[in-house]
Amino acid sequence: MHIYIREKIASIAIMRCLGVRSAQAFIIYLMQILAIGLVGSVIGAALGSAIQYAMPHVFKDFLPLTVSTAVSWAAIGQGVLLGMIISVLFALLPLIAIRNISPLNTLRMSYDNINLMRDPLRWLVYLLIGGFIVLFTKFQLDSWKGSVAFTIGILIAFFILTLIARGLMILARLIIRNSWSYLWRQGFANLYRPNNQTIILIVSIGLSTTFICTLFFIQNILVKQVSLSATSNSANMILFDIQPAQKQALAATTKSQHLPVIQQVPVVTMRMATINGKTESIYKKDTTLKIPARIFANEYRATYRDTLVPTEKVIEGDWTGKAISGKDVAISLEDRFAKHNHLKVGDHIAFNVQGSPIPTVVTSIRQVNWNKMQTNFLVVFPKGVLEDAPQFYAMLTHVGSDKISAKYQQTVVKQFPNISIIDLGQLLSVLDELLDKLGDIIKFMSAFSIITGIVVLIASVRISKYQRIRESVLLRTMGASRKQILTITALEYIFLGGLSALTGILIAMTGSWFLAKFSFDIPFTVSIVPAAVIFVIITGLTVVIGLLNSRGILNRPPLEILRGDD
C-alpha cells in the first residue's frame, strides 16, 4: 500500500489542483483499497478452496483414510471479510497521508515532505491495528493470555529492531573515515543521512525474517516431535501382572535375550475413601461442592518412588520423595486430573488400599508428558509407605524384530505363564509411518506461510525504491558511473540486509524457544546450518531487490526521472 500511494502522489496532487478536497481524495483511494482487498480476498478464497479439493488427492498416499471435501461458505465469507479488514487496516497509514498532499506536490514530487509522524490520526491507526492483532489471535488461539503474549512479542521485536537500526545509524556516523574510498563512505553515509531507509528496512526485513525463521524452527520441532523413532531406547513391548517374586528373574531372562530393561515399576491398586474428611455420599448430596462424586467410583493404579522421571515436572507445591513418620503421606497428582476434579495442594485424601486406610495430603501437582512411551501415573506416593502393600510390577523393553519378539514371548510365557504381554512393535511401526507422512503435510502447509513472509520481505525492500531516486539521479548527473552507483547501493543493502537478517534470526530463536518450552512443552533444538542458509538467502534477496530498484534509474536519462515520469 505504501508503494501504491507513492506512485499516486502526482495524480492526487493534480486532483487537488482541480478542486478535489483532501477528504474526497481519501475516500476515493479508500474505495480503491476496498476493491483491491475484495478482489484479492476472493481470489485467495478461490485458491484456498481449490487447494482444499486438491489436497486429498495429493496426500492420498499419506492419509490412512478417505477424506471428503465440501465448500464451507461460512469459512469463505469469513476469509474474504478478514482479507478486506486487513487490507484497509494496513493501508490506513499511507491513506491518511493523502490528506496532507497539497497541490504544491505537482511541482515537488516527494512523498517524504508529507510528515506522517506529526499526524495525530496515526496513533488511532496504531491502536486499531494492535486491537485487531489481539482479537484475531484470540480467535485463533482461544486464549486471551496467548493473544496478549503474541502481541507483546511482536511489539518487543519491533522495538528491538528499531533500537538496532538507530544503533547502526549512530555507529555508521562514528566509524566513517575520510581515508576510506568514496564508494565505502557513500554506502555507509546512506545509513544515517536525511531520507535514509535504515529504520524502515531493518524493522520490516527483520520482522519478515523473524516470521520466516520462526515458522521454519517450529516446523522442524513439530516434525521431530510427531516422529516416534524406533531406536533401542524406545519401548515397544509392555509386560505386566509381574509378581514381586518374579521381578528379578524376569529382568535376568530379558537381559539374557540381549534386550534392555527400560522400566520396571511397582503398581498398587486403590480407591479413594474420603476427600477432606467427606465421603462419597456427602458429595452426592451437597451439589455446592465442586469435587465430582464419580471420583470415588474409579479404581486407581498408583506407584511409589523417591524421584521424578524425565516426563514429569512439578508445577505447583513441593515434591516429597520419602514419607515422614507421624504425618499424612505426601502424594503428587497429575495436573489435568487435579484440575478436572478440582483437587489442589493441601487437600487431604484417604485411600483404601486393599482394605487398609492410608491418610494422605496433596503436596505437589505434576505436569506429565503422556506422549512418551513409558509408564505414567495419576497418583504417585513417596517411598516408605506402599512397599508391603499388595502390588504387581510393569516392565518395558524393546525388541528389534518380529522374530526376536516371538522368541522372547515364548520364553516368558514358558517361565512365567501369569505375565501378560502387549507387543506394540507392529502398532508403533504403523504409527511411525503415519507420523512421518504427517511431518510431510506440516512441511507442505508451512511452505504457504513462508512464501507469504518472502512476499512481505520483497514488498518491504520495494518500498525503499523511492528513498534513493533523487540521490541516484544527482550522482548520475554529476558523472557517477553505473558501476559506482550499483556498488554504493549494494554496500548499503548488504549492511541493512545482513543486520536485519541476523537480528531477525536471533529473535526467531528466542521466540521459538519460548514456544517450545511454554506452549509445546518439548525440547528446543536449532541447527546452525539452516539458520546460516536463511541468513545468506535473506541478505542476498535484499541486495538483489535493492539493485533491481535502481535498474529503472540507471537505464533512463536523469532528466526524464527528474520530470517525475518514474
Intertermini distance: 17 Å
Major sheet strand order: 2-3-8-5-7-6
- Count of DSSP H/I helices: 17
What average pLDDT do the residues reach? 80
Order of helices and strands: HHHHHHHHEHEHEEEHEEEEHEHHHHH
Report the strand count. 10
Overall spatial form = elongated
Largest beta-sheet details = 6 strands, mixed, barrel
Using only CA atoms, what is the Rg? Answer: 33 Å
Low-confidence spans: pLDDT under 50, at least 5 residues? 109-113, 228-232
Give the fraction of residues assigned to helices: 55-70%
Beta-strand percentage range: 5-15%
Structural class call reads alpha+beta
Task: Give a quick rundown of the structure.
With 566 residues, this protein is α+β, with helices and mostly antiparallel strands. It has helices at residues 2-7, 9-17, 22-58, 73-96, 121-141, 144-175, 182-189, 198-226, 247-256, 280-285, 335-340, 402-415, 425-463, 469-477, 482-519, 528-554, 558-562; strands at residues 237-242, 263-275, 300-304, 312-317, 329-334, 348-353, 356-368, 379-381, 392-397, 420-423. It is elongated, with a radius of gyration of 33 Å.
